[in-house]
Amino acid sequence: MPPRSNPTARQVRLGAEMRRMRERAGVTARDAAAFLNSNPIQMSHVESGRSGISEERVRRLADYYSCENPRYVDALVEMANERGKGWWEEFRGRLSPVSLDLAEMEHHAVYMRALEVLHIPGLLQTEDHMRAAFSYVNPDLPPKKLDTWVEFRSRRKAALADCTFGAVIHEAALRLKVGGTKEARAQLTYLLEMSEWDNVTVRIIPFDAEGFAGAGYSMLYVGGRVSQLDTVQMDTMDGSSFVDGESRLRKYRTLLDRIECSALTPAASRDFIRRVEGEL
Questions:
Q1: Which residues pair with 251 in a beta bridge?
Q2: Which runs of consecutive H residues, i.e. helices, occur in the chain?
Q3: pLDDT (average), residues 225-247
Q4: Residue 216: pLDDT band with limits 50, 70, 90
Q5: Which residues contact 181 (CB under 8 A, 6 or more apart)?
Q6: Does the pTM of the predicted model rise above 0.85?
Q7: Strand pairing partners for 201?
C-alpha cells in the first residue's frame, strides 16, 4: 500500500507517539526497522503518519522499547486499529482538512476544556449565532457554503454526548451582539440551557475579575484516553493549530487551572449570564 499523501492529524499523532516512545528508549529508527524485519524508509513513513501500523507491531515495538505504561500502549493500539470513517468524512473536499481533524479529535475526547475571551465556544453556539459569525468573517461566503459550515459545526456537538465539557468564557463574549440583539439573547438562553447539562460546566470571567491577566486567543484542551495523548487546539489567523508534547501540555493545563481561579463558580456564572441577558 502506498504511503498516505495527506494523513489526518490523528494519524500523524500516532506516528509521533511511536517515534517518541522509540526515542525515549534510545533506539535508532534503523534498529527498530531491523527488529520488525522492515527498513528505515518504512519506519519513517509510520512515524510520520504516512503509513499505518498493526496492533501486533505496536505491541512488539512497545515491548522492544521497554515501555511500562500498558494504558498508553492500549490507547496507541486503539488508534492503530481505527479503520472506520467518521461522519466528518462526508465533508472532505468541501471543508479544510484541519476542520475535519478538529471534529475527529473532539469525537475521541474523554473530556474538553475551552477558553474563550471574545467568542462563545463553537460547541455551545446556536445555529443563528454560527450563521452570523461565519457571515461576518467572510461576507462573500456563498449561501451553500455557509450552510455547509453551519451544518458541520452543528454536527460537531455530537461529541458532547460522550465526554465532559468545561468552558471558561469572558464577559466580553457574552456582551457581543453577534447577529443582533434577538440572536444574542437567544444565544445566552441556549448557553444557560447547556450549562444545566450534567456533563457541561460554564464559568464566566467578569470584567472586574481579579487575577485574570487576559488571553488573546481561543483554546480547546482535548483530553485523550491517557494524558500523554492530550492535545491543545488554538485558533490563529491561519486557522487551527494543534499542540502536543508533555511539557507543552503541562503548561496549558497550568494556564487553564490559573484562569479558572479567576472565574465565577458555575452557579454564580448562570446568575451572571441571566443578568447580562436581561440587560441586552
A1: none
A2: 9-25, 29-35, 40-47, 55-64, 70-80, 97-107, 127-137, 143-156, 171-175, 181-195, 246-262, 266-279
A3: 87
A4: low
A5: 280
A6: yes
A7: 166
Taking CA atoms, 40 is separated from 14, 15, 28, 227, 261, in Å, by 17, 14, 9, 29, 48
pLDDT of residue 29 exceeding 80, the answer is yes
Which triple of cell numbers denotes residue 187? 444565544
Going edge to edge, which strands form the sheet with 111-116? 200-205, 164-170, 111-116, 219-223, 231-236, 239-243
Specify the pairing of strand 200-205 against strand 239-243: unpaired
Phi, psi of 29 (to 5 degrees): -60, -35
Asked if residues 263 and 204 have their Cβ atoms less than 8 Å apart, the reply is yes
Task: State how far the Cα of 148 lies from the Cα of 87, in Å rounded to an integer.
Answer: 13
Question: What torsion, rounded to 10 degrees, do the Cα atoms 103, 104, 109, 114 define?
Answer: -30
Cell digits of residue 13? 499523532
Q: What is the pLDDT of residues 102-148, one digit of tens each?
A: 999 999 999 999 999 999 999 999 999 999 999 998 999 999 999 99
Q: How far apart are CA 190 and CA 183, in angstroms?
A: 10
pLDDT per position as a tens digit, 45-96: 999 999 999 999 999 999 999 999 999 999 999 999 997 789 999 999 999 9
Cα atoms in the 13 Å half-sphere on the side-chain side of 265: 2
Task: Report how far apart, in Å, the C-alpha atoms of 141 and of each of 20, 132, 240 are.
Answer: 42, 11, 19
Q: Which letter does DSSP use for residue 280 in this model?
A: -
Residue type (1 letter), 227: S
At 116, list the grid cell.
474563550
